[in-house]
Amino acid sequence: MSATTRLKGRKIAVHDMSLRDGMHPKRHQISVEQMKTVAVGLDQAGVPLIEVTHGDGLGGASVNYGFAAASDEDYLRAVVPLMKRAKISALLLPGIGTVDELRMAADCGIACIRVATHCTEADVSEQHIALGRKLGLDTVGFLMMSHMADPSKILEQARLMESYGANCIYTTDSAGYMLPEDVAERVDALRQGLKPETEIGFHGHHNLAMGVANSIAAVTAGASRIDCACGGMGAGAGNTPMEVFIAVAERMGIETGVDTFRIMDVAEDLVTPMMDFPVRIDRNSLTLGYAGTYSSFLLFAKRAEKQYGVPARDILVEMGRRKTVGGQEDMIEDVALDLLKNRSVAV
Ligand SMILES: C[C@H](O)CC(=O)C(=O)O
Ligand SMILES: [Mn+2]
C-alpha cells in the first residue's frame, strides 16, 4: 500500500508556532495587536492549536534571551478570549519558566502546556508536567535537539515524561538536522514503546528544506500532532511552513480541519509582512541544519559577526562541533572570540 493510501482519512492536529517560535526572528518584538490579528486569522482558518509566549517560553524575557515587546501574561490575556475554536498553548522550559508562571498561564486560560527539555534531560520536567496535569491541562513533553540521541534514548526519556503525567510526547528537531528516516525511527520508537493513549508529536525546522517531508514521515510513523508555522516564521530557516504542509496533507487525504486557501492568506497577508527579514534558507540557516546547531542561535551568531567580524557561519559550525544545546547562547560570544584569537595567531 502506498503512503498516500495508508494516510487517507488520518486525522491529525496542527499546532501553530508563528507566534512563539516566530518570536525568535522577531527578536521577541511581536506586538500584542499583531498577536491578536494573527491568532484570529489562524482560528478562522481552522488551526486547532496556537502557541503564544516569548520565543524561549514562559519567563524567557531576560538579558540572556532578550526582552519581549510585552509580557507573557499580556499576550495571553489579549489572545485567549478572542479564540472561537482554537486552544492556546504555552511553552515552558524548566529553569527558565517557573511553576508560578505555569499557574499564571493557566489562570489566563491556556488549554495546553508544553514542557521542553534537552532530549537527555527529561528528569528536570517532573514538577512542571505533574502540575500541568493537576491543573487539568493538555500536558505535553517536548524533547529538544532529538537528533543528538538515538531512538532508544528518546524513548527512555519520553517514558519518564509519560510517567510524570504527559499525555503527548514530542520529538523535536530543534536544529533542522534530521532527515525523514531519522524522524520515522524516533516516532516509531515512541509509538511502539509508549502507552497507546499517549499521543506523539513532531516539531521541525526547515533548515535543510525537510520540514514538510519530515512531518509527513512523522505522520506515517504514527504522530498525530504536527507543529508548523504560518509563513514558516520560526527560528533558523523557520518551522515547517503551515500553508505548505496543509496543502500537501490535503493532497494526501490527511485530515487537518484547516482551510487550505484561508491559511495561505494568513501566511501571505498577515504573517509574512511582519517579518523583519525573509525567514528563509540562506548560508547561515542552512549551516544550522548541516552542522546540527540549535536554530535559535542564528540571530546571536549574526550579532557576534557584526561585533567581531567573525562569519556567523563559522560560529554556528563551531557551536555544532562543540555539541552545544539550548540555553548555551552565552557561549556564542566566547566562540566568536576564540575564532578571532585563532585567526590572529594564524596570520
Ligand atoms: C525554546 C526553543 O525555541 C524550543 C523550540 O522550538 C525548539 O527546540 O525547536
Ligand atoms: Mn523550534
UniProtKB/TrEMBL annotation:
Please list the GO biological process terms of this entry.
Answer: L-leucine biosynthetic process
A GO molecular function term, named singly, is: 2-isopropylmalate synthase activity
Catalysed conversion reaction: (S)-4-hydroxy-2-oxopentanoate = acetaldehyde + pyruvate
Q: Where is the Pyruvate carboxyltransferase domain?
A: 12-264
List residue numbers at the site (Transition state stabilizer). Answer: 20
Enzyme Commission (EC) number: 4.1.3.39
The active site consists of: 24
Which protein are we looking at?
A: 4-hydroxy-2-oxovalerate aldolase
